[in-house]
Amino acid sequence: MTVPDAEAVADAEPVADAEPVPDAEALPDVGAMADAEPVPDAEAMADAGPVPDAGAMADVEAAADVVPVADVVAVSGAVAMSGGSLPGCGVGGGPPPRGVPAVVAAAREAAPDPAVWFLLYPHPRREVTEALVRRAEEAGCSALVVTADSPRFGRRTRDLRNGFDDLPPGCAAENMRDLPGAPPGALTDIPMHPAASWRDFAETVGMTSLPVWIKGVLHPADARLAVEHGAAGVIVSNHGGRQCDTAAASLDCLPAVVDAVAGAVPVLLDGGVRRGGDVAVALALGAAAVGVGRPVLWGLAAKGAAGVREVLRTLLDEYDHTLALCGGRRNADLSADMVVRGDAAW
Ligand SMILES: Cc1cc2nc3c(=O)[nH]c(=O)nc-3n(C[C@H](O)[C@H](O)[C@H](O)COP(=O)(O)O)c2cc1C
Predict the structure, then answer these.
(1) d(CA 4, CA 191)
(2) Which structural domain, as residue segments, surrounds residue 268?
(3) Torsion-angle region of 281 (φ positive above 0: left; ψ -120 to 50: alpha; else: beta)
(4) How many Cα atoms sit within 13 Å of 18 on the Cβ side?
(5) CB atoms closer than 10 angstroms to residue 170
(6) Closest Cα to atom 14, ligand 1: which residue?
(7) How far apart are CA 148 and CA 215, in angstroms?
(8) Residues paired with 115 in a beta bridge
(9) Atom 20 in ligand 1: which residue has the minimum CA distance?
(10) What number of other Cβ atoms are within 10 A of residue 234's Cβ?
(11) Is pLDDT larger for residue 66 or for residue 275?
(12) Which of 193, 219, 239, 321 is an active site residue?
């Protein structure tokens, strides 16, 4: 398999080694807000599942435990791993999890109607993309998220230094098994799609009745195009700084994207969300929710499922605290004029 699979474990191991991401001080994409009231965009997101206020990029083993405190679990082909004998890759006893059906099943153990969003790298072969879409639908995912910021794989110096360019033996990206063009039981690579276009995105939208979000938008012109091509929502994201290390911070791009979308669809943000205050700033600047990537994995690495729960709970508590200190009781009480930017103080 090719590099994308490696993403699944690249940053998960070294809790102590964790470095701030390039845009860490400037908060980005998916977060977690719990009891917060419906955000203005909530109606538009209703199709995607319960309360869209929050999100959590979680890996398969964490999924079941994430649901109680996160409103959305996002799973990708890259992270839905199963493994045999390697520590950390399998689950003790019982059969190992197998891809997105296992994630949805685990989420259902915690909530009857969980919101599980499937992260989809567009594949150069349309039939492979379509098979993945069907797989996500059949598993019971409530939305698809097409990643638009990866025409090629990121160049990550730590991975290069460590020779980390594939999953370890015994681990596999299970969602890529048994796809068209491959022998039964074999895995298909996840090559990046350098020629992916807006037409491809619109085709994906046309393949399914599920809401299809787009992730990896930073420029307002792209946000407008996304809406024109049928996006159900826009995720402002620089992939956590993992694709292009000179990419702008998601937070800096958020206000222009929110303006460009003009309420047509909800806007989420991810990348660098580390504290509840980061969540509050993103919401104040127009995000309907935020996403959290690595903190979830750090929690997982440190304390397993309990660590994931602790990370999300801490974010929620901090968010509530910040909201109260801002004089607010609900998300909608946060407004852009509460955010002091760089050289301007009101
Ligand atoms: C281990 C790992 C795997 C990831 N895999 C994917 C993926 O398959 N597709 C995708 O769009 N983003 C992927 N991402 C990026 C996240 O979805 C998200 O944009 C990013 O982690 C947010 O930044 P943060 O980690 O600073 O919160 C991955 C991130 C990590 C850390």
Answers:
(1) 7
(2) 3-338
(3) alpha
(4) 18
(5) 16
(6) 239
(7) 6
(8) 72
(9) 240
(10) 28
(11) 275
(12) 239
User: Ligand 1 pocket: which of 239, 269, 290 to mutate (most atoms <8 Å of CB)?
Assistant: 239
Q: Give me the CATH number covering residue 56.
A: 3.20.20.70
| 346 domain residue, yes or no | no
Instruction: Determine how β-strand 81-83 pairs with β-strand 171-173.
Output: antiparallel
Q: What's the average model confidence in pLDDT over 231-240?
A: 97
**pLDDT number for residue 71:** 67
From the CA atom positions of the chain, what is the Rg in Å?
Answer: 19
| Least confident piece of the model among 38-47, 150-159, 174-183, 255-264 | 38-47
* pLDDT value at residue 98: 83
Work out how many domains the chain is built from and give that number. Answer: 1
Q: Angle CA(11)–CA(310)–CA(84) in degrees, nearest 5? A: 45
Question: Which comes out higher in pLDDT, residue 30 or 296?
Answer: 296
Torsion of CA 96, 154, 199, 126, to 10 degrees: -40
Q: What are phi and psi of 237, to 5 degrees?
A: -155, 140
- Asked whether residue 344 is domain-assigned, the answer is no
pLDDT at 181 over 50: yes
Q: How far is the CA of 293 from the centre of ligand 1 (A)?
A: 5
CB-defined site of ligand 1, < 6 Å? 7-8, 10-12, 21, 28-29, 57, 76, 78-79, 119, 147, 215, 237, 239-240, 270-273, 292-294, 297
- Report the phi/psi class of residue 189: left, alpha or beta, with left for phi > 0 and alpha for psi in -120 to 50: beta
| Residue 169 belongs to some domain of the structure | yes
Cα-to-chain-centroid distance, residue 21:
16
Domain presence at residue 343 = no
Q: Is 239 a catalytic residue?
A: yes
Q: Look at residue 59 and tell me whether its pLDDT is greater than 90.
A: no
Please give the full DSSP string across 25-63, using - where no structure is assigned: GG--S-----SPPPPTTHHHHGGG-S-TTB-EE--TTTH
Pocket test for ligand 1, best of 9, 57, 273 (most atoms within 8 A of CB): 57
